[in-house]
Amino acid sequence: MQCEQGALHTYREAQTNLGKLTVRRRPVNNHNKIKEITNQVGAFLGRENLNPIGQDDCAPAAEEVIV
Fold this sequence. Notes:
By secondary structure, the chain is mainly alpha-helical. The chain has one domain (2-52). Helix content is 57%, strand content 0%. The chain has helices at residues 2-8, 11-21, 31-50. Helix 2 crosses helix 3. It is elongated. The two termini are 30 Å apart.
């Protein structure tokens, strides 16, 4: 939730939003921690996007797709 809030709002807005969702003050919801968590998740996703998916990593093609 910290990362999502940090991605959608400024870190200070995210801090305020998370504060409204909790029944007591949580020091981990400060704007510095939200920034750190958001950057960690972004770095992880960035590394994952650099690793191409090989043919062996994919499921076999479906005969039919129903939407």
